[in-house]
Every structure is written in C-alpha cells, then in structure tokens.
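Next up, a chain.

===
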Amino acid sequence: MPKSKPTIGPMRTQPGERTSTMPTQVLPAMPAAGRKTVAAQPKQEPTRGEAVRVAKARITRRNSLRKQREALKD
C-alpha cells in the first residue's frame, strides 16, 4: 500500500502541496517621532438642566428595576 503524502493544517485536512509559498507580510511599526501630541480637552461641567435629566433617568431606571425584581418574586 503506497504511503499518502504528508498533510498539514488543522486536523490534517490541508495537503502539503497546496501550502502557501509566500510568508505573511508584517507591517512596519508606525514611527511616533514626527507626530505632534494633542492635549486632551478638559471636560466641561454639565449644565443644571443636564444634571437634572441624568438624575431623573437614574431614578426612573432604579424604579423600573425594582418593579422587575418584585414581579419576579411573585
């Protein structure tokens, strides 16, 4: 019985004659020497209206989750 050709790859499904002849190309690292660094802008304080909206959303979410938990208990 003739010996089969050696196989490679996952679970020996890829025959050796079909392998890639070109190695994978590695991209060079990006040089950081010529780049300018940009300072991060400081966060602005939220306005009072925005703060109220966020607070109401938190309260609504908390109450909704409380109702869901109560519904699951029953």
User: Anything to note?
Assistant: The first helix runs from residue 48 to 73. The helical segments are 48-73. The chain has a mean pLDDT of 77.
